[in-house]
């Protein structure tokens, strides 16, 4: 009942309506009786046609007609004339039905069914379609049917592309035509486009020429009526086609190229959380590879690791992805250095070679073809740790007065050096980006004329962001302008406030992580009375930034202590890349449930976690539930189900996220979920816990 | 004591009440997996709590004319003299699902005689195992899901020959992973969703080739992030719901570009606060459901203004005689009444 007024325009003759309904019911029951008794007489079949003209959605009647056709065809023994007349009749019934309701699924399918019997002339079908598409250019049944007919008559993609061009020329505001255009172009982009270009202007076959032409076409739509969405998504797709790297590339890694890493000997730190910067448990030293897109096939044969000691076993690379066990942007493994190999004060050169043998492939099937090599040094320090080391388990307090501004030169020269090299240099990128940068530059200049409207602002913000993504090694430009554009959009279009806010957050983080200086200005020494200055860990504080979404993880792989408190985060998706994290503060954000914290499951080094003052348990709809890897729909590996505490059923998500973590300190106060029984549950679930909500656990 | 994960946690339970797929959250059992304990009884304490929350929210936001809608639904069922009721007779099974789920959402499920309904549903079952839209009509996957959902709503799945129904659904899967609606071979991603949802309610997903089913859905993904009914088909909010939900049930949401699709979906909200189903179309209450639930599944629902949407839905109510229409001042029907109430409940 779409678009029918509630109060009829003319007074209704109720008796007449009732009579009409009665008549229809009588027809329907007579038809059903024919159907049931398999009566396919001329009168019976005509009755079904009559019914379908009134009510094309009566699917059983279409089925009945198919049965009748099958029987009649069998009887006429493929006499071509009879066959034609039987099938013609069906096409006629469909056409009449479509006139009554040309969104009828049953009618369209019936026509396809007839055509699949090799009937009807294709020109006739296209003619009929033109008629229907003239009435409603957006009818997706008609477009689907057109694709069906085109495939059946093997019309070339070029011809169909031309058809979309004609439809667009007729009316720039036809999203369906734009969709079909993108569909043809994306399906067979290179071949199709080059053919097209040969036709249009011999000699030009390069991707940039084609893209330039398409930009011009869609710009026309956007500039004709800026509120018309028809061209919006096509433009975004073109932009993506312009900047997206077809090849999988390594973006960053841990450790970074050329770094020096001090490891304490295993005797002292095994199983403990070290708070010292760049000290790790030597039994569990993480290697992380961060790609520009999701890849599969990262394993000990595609990535070779050589070092001065014997690894004994093949390294097992794991994808850091909560949803897919085959592919991921980020892969990690752990070097387990055997005790016997450790000699104090010795340095080991470690080399990680990625992609020298084939096997790493993007999800679209493109092979990783730009081998990279990462070299770094491991120093083993057998310095006995200071006495009273247990105080390292003193409670971490995320208070401002526990953080001292980072002073250059005071310690960690390693850190300062490596912050310069966070991004891996890929030569392919710099050579290929010239024409792309030009296109984006041109496009930006043109769209600056449209800055007084929503789509103009959004497009310029996207273009400037895309421009930066082409030059990953350079400091991003125009960040301030992009941030301003998103702020203006929040005011201009409040319904989609949070969309702009999330994008604003991503750009802000790009800005913060873009340079050594900017990162260092957010680095602090954590100091409290229980820690000696030597051991004061370095904390990256991204608190109080009003960010609602996280990003730029590829620049943060080195972070061990992270303060994200007092933001507006609802999810930490992507944080799993930070494999070194051992202390994390997420208090005073907007997390709604434990399912939003699934990334924590991958942070095996995490010891200290603060999720206090959030909204966990206060919402009846859990919007992160569907993205959460549920044990009901996936295998979860080895789970120890033999834990006898009944409350796990109530706190299932918390159980699932926290169960294998070795947390020593946890803060959850200030969430709706907390209660005495929840704390009892947590203490049982986390036997390593020393502090819960600031209280020492026995 | 052996500890098994619960079938549904409280928040899942709550969600399971609203969406079109009744027990929508992710119950999948593959061969060889451990037996899960039976689901907790409906209206267990957490559910009741959730209902109370909803009720208090309703009171706070005001104006869902719940009693009127209940009366409207009951009246529709009794009216046989209207032309519409005759035209729609072949899809009475869908109507039953829309009406009864609305009653359930309004906590008025007990105003109907469930035995009478179940008896009628079973009369619509065909010897193939599939259900028809009404007695005497042909079986189709569309009505088979509605039948399963209504029985699940009344906690009466035990009246079903589960093996027979699930075999019927599984038999409609094609070589390429897609599903036909019935023996006549119309293919559509709606049917993929229906098969996956139905089989997951019956805990029989192991009867189909899930990987191929997922691959077919992926082949219908477009460059705007959305999905169409067949490969190359234009993105449409209803179709997107079907595909995203099917991917959610099968644990394959990583195939969705959440930010791209999220932007397309959130731009369905027009100035009046209502949602349309495609760019440059009019808003319609039924998209409150299709768009809102899709945004919820990909965690991007905060990208629209729920307050404006609720206002739009409430404006489409017939506050005099009950029922909700597609747009303000249009004629009400049971389809839009259901989607309006469901959308309103999820948005609240």
UniProtKB/TrEMBL annotation, chain A:
Enzyme kind, highest EC tier: transferase
Coiled-coil regions listed: none
Biological process annotations from GO: prenylation
Keyword Repeat: yes
GO terms, molecular function: Rab geranylgeranyltransferase activity
Pfam families (UniProt xref): PPTA (PF01239)
Substrates-to-products reaction catalysed: geranylgeranyl diphosphate + L-cysteinyl-[protein] = S-geranylgeranyl-L-cysteinyl-[protein] + diphosphate
Signal peptide location: none
E.C. designation(s): 2.5.1.60
InterPro entries (UniProt xref): Leu-rich_rpt, LRR_dom_sf, Prenyl_trans_a
Cellular component GO terms, alphabetical: Rab-protein geranylgeranyltransferase complex
Keywords: Prenyltransferase, Repeat, Transferase
SMART domains: LRR_SD22 (SM00365)
Functional note: Catalyzes the transfer of a geranyl-geranyl moiety from geranyl-geranyl pyrophosphate to cysteines occuring in specific C-terminal amino acid sequences.
Protein family according to the UniProt entry: Belongs to the protein prenyltransferase subunit alpha family.
Name of this chain's protein: Geranylgeranyl transferase type-2 subunit alpha
Organism: Linum tenue
From TrEMBL, chain B:
GO molecular function terms listed in the Swiss-Prot or TrEMBL record: metal ion binding; Rab geranylgeranyltransferase activity
InterPro entries: PGGT1B-like, Prenyltrans, Ptb1, Terpenoid_cyclase/PrenylTrfase
Enzyme Commission (EC) number: 2.5.1.60
Coiled-coil features, chain-numbered ranges: none
Cofactor note: Binds 1 zinc ion per subunit.
Superkingdom field: Eukaryota
SUPFAM superfamilies, sorted: Terpenoid cyclases/Protein prenyltransferases
Enzyme class: transferase
Biological process terms in GO annotation: gametophyte development; root development
Catalysed reactions listed for this entry: geranylgeranyl diphosphate + L-cysteinyl-[protein] = S-geranylgeranyl-L-cysteinyl-[protein] + diphosphate
GO cellular component: Rab-protein geranylgeranyltransferase complex
Cofactor: Zn(2+)
Pfam families linked to this entry: Prenyltrans (PF00432)
Domain named Prenyltransferase alpha-alpha toroid: residues: 64-343
Keywords of this entry: Metal-binding, Prenyltransferase, Repeat, Transferase, Zinc
Quaternary structure and interacting proteins, as annotated: Heterotrimer composed of the alpha subunit RGTA, the beta subunit RGTB and REP; within this trimer, RGTA and RGTB form the catalytic component, while REP mediates peptide substrate binding.
Role noted for this protein: Required for male fertility and root tip growth.
Family: Belongs to the protein prenyltransferase subunit beta family.
PANTHER family: GERANYLGERANYL TRANSFERASE TYPE BETA SUBUNIT (PTHR11774), GERANYLGERANYL TRANSFERASE TYPE-2 SUBUNIT BETA 1-RELATED (PTHR11774:SF16)
Protein's name in the database: Geranylgeranyl transferase type-2 subunit beta
């Amino acid at each position: 009942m779409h678009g029918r007024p509630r109060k009829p325009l003319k007074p209704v003759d109720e008796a007449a309506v009732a009579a009409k309904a009665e008549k229809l019911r009588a027809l329907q029951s007579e038809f059903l009786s024919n159907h049931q008794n398999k009566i396919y007489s001329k009168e019976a079949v005509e009755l079904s046609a009559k019914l379908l003209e009134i009510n094309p959605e009566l699917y059983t009647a279409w089925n009945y007609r198919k049965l009748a056709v099958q029987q009649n065809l069998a009887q006429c023994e493929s006499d071509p004339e009879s066959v034609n007349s039987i099938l013609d009749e069906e096409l006629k019934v469909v056409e009449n039905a479509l006139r009554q309701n040309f969104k009828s699924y049953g009618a369209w399918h019936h026509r396809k069914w007839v055509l699949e019997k090799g009937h009807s002339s294709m020109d006739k079908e296209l003619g009929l379609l033109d008629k229907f598409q003239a009435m409603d250019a957006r009818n997706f049944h008609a477009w689907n049917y057109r694709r069906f007919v085109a495939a059946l008559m093997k019309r070339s993609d070029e011809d169909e592309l031309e058809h979309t061009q004609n439809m667009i020329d007729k009316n720039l505001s036809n999203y369906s035509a734009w969709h079909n255009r993108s569909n043809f172009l994306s399906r067979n982009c290179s071949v199709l486009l080059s053919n097209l270009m040969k036709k249009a202007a011999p000699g030009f076959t390069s991707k940039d020429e084609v893209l330039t032409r398409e930009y011009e076409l869609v710009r026309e739509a956007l500039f004709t009526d800026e509120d018309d969405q028809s061209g919006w998504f096509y433009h975004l797709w073109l932009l993506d086609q312009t900047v997206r790297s077809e090849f999988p590339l390594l973006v960053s890694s841990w450790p970074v190229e050329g770094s020096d890493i001090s490891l304490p000997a295993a005797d002292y730190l095994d199983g403990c959380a070290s708070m010292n910067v760049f000290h790790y448990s030597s039994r569990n030293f993480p290697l992380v590879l961060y790609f520009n897109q999701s890849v599969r096939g990262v394993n000990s044969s595609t990535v070779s690791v050589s070092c001065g000691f014997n690894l004994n076993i093949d390294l097992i690379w794991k994808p850091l992805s909560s949803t897919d066990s085959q592919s991921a942007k980020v892969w990690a493994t752990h070097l387990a250095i055997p005790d016997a190999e450790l000699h104090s004060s010795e340095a080991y050169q470690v080399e990680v070679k990625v992609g020298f043998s084939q096997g790493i492939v993007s999800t679209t099937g493109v092979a990783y073809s730009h081998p990279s090599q990462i070299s770094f040094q491991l120093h083993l320090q057998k310095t006995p740790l200071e006495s009273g080391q247990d105080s390292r388990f003193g409670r971490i307090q995320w208070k401002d007065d526990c953080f001292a501004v980072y002073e250059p030169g005071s310690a960690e020269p390693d850190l300062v050096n490596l912050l310069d090299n966070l991004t891996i240099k890929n030569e392919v990128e710099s050579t290929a980006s010239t024409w792309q940068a030009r296109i984006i530059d041109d496009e930006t200049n043109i769209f600056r004329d449209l800055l007084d409207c929503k789509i103009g602002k959004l497009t310029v913000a996207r273009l400037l962001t895309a421009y930066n993504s082409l030059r990953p090694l350079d400091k991003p430009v125009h960040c301030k302008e992009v941030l301003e554009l998103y702020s203006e959009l929040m005011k201009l279009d409040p319904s989609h406030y949070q969309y702009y806010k999330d994008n604003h957050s991503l750009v802000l983080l790009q800005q913060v992580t873009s340079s050594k200086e900017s990162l260092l200005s957010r680095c602090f020494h954590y100091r409290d009375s229980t820690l000696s200055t030597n051991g004061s860990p370095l904390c990256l504080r991204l608190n109080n930034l009003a960010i609602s979404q996280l990003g730029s993880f590829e620049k943060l792989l080195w972070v061990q202590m992270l303060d994200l408190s007092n933001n507006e985060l609802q999810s930490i998706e992507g944080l799993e890349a930070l494999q070194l994290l051992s202390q994390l503060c997420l208090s005073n954000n907007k997390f709604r449930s434990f399912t939003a914290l699934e990334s924590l499951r991958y942070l095996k080094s995490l010891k200290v976690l603060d999720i206090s003052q959030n909204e966990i348990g206060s919402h009846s709809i859990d919007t992160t539930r569907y993205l959460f890897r549920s044990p009901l729909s996936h295998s979860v590996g080895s789970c120890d189900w033999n834990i006898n505490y009944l409350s796990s059923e109530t706190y299932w998500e918390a159980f699932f996220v926290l169960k294998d973590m070795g947390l020593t300190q946890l803060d959850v106060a200030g969430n709706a979920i907390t209660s005495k029984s929840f704390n009892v549950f947590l203490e049982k679930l986390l036997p390593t816990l020393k502090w819960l909500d600031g209280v020492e656990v026995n | 004591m052996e500890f098994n994960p619960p079938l549904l946690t409280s928040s899942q339970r709550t969600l399971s009440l609203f969406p079109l797929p009744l027990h929508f959250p992710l119950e999948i059992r593959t061969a060889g997996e451990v037996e899960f304990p039976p689901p907790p009884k409906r209206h267990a304490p957490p559910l009741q709590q959730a209902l109370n929350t909803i009720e208090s929210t309703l009171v706070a936001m005001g104006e869902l004319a719940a009693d009127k809608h209940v009366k409207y639904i009951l009246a529709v069922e009794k009216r046989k003299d209207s032309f519409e009721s005759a035209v729609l007779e072949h899809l009475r099974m869908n109507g039953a699902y829309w009406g009864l789920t609305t009653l359930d959402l309004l906590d008025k499920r007990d105003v109907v005689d469930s035995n009478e309904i179940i008896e009628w549903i079973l009369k619509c079952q065909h010897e193939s195992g599939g259900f028809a839209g009404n007695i005497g009509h042909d079986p189709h996957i569309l009505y088979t899901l509605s039948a399963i959902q209504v029985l699940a709503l009344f906690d009466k799945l035990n009246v079903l020959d589960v093996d027979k129904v699930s075999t019927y659904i599984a038999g409609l899967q094609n070589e390429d992973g897609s599903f036909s609606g019935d023996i006549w071979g119309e293919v559509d991603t709606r049917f993929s969703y229906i098969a996956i949802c139905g089989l997951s309610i019956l805990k029989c997903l192991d009867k189909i080739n899930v990987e191929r089913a997922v691959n077919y859905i992926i082949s219908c993904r477009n460059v705007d992030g959305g999905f169409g009914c067949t490969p190359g088909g234009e993105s449409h909010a209803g179709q997107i719901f079907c595909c995203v939900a099917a991917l959610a049930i099968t644990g394959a949401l990583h195939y969705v570009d959440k930010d791209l699709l999220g932007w397309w979906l959130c731009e369905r909200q027009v100035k009046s606060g209502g949602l349309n189903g495609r760019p440059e179309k009019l808003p319609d209450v039924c998209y409150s459901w299709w768009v809102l639930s899709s945004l919820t599944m990909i965690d991007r629902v905060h990208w629209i203004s729920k307050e404006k949407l609720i206002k739009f839905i409430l404006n489409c109510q017939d506050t005099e005689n009950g029922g909700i229409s597609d747009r303000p001042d249009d004629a009400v029907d049971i389809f839009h009444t259901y989607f309006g109430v469901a959308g309103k409940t999820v948005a609240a």
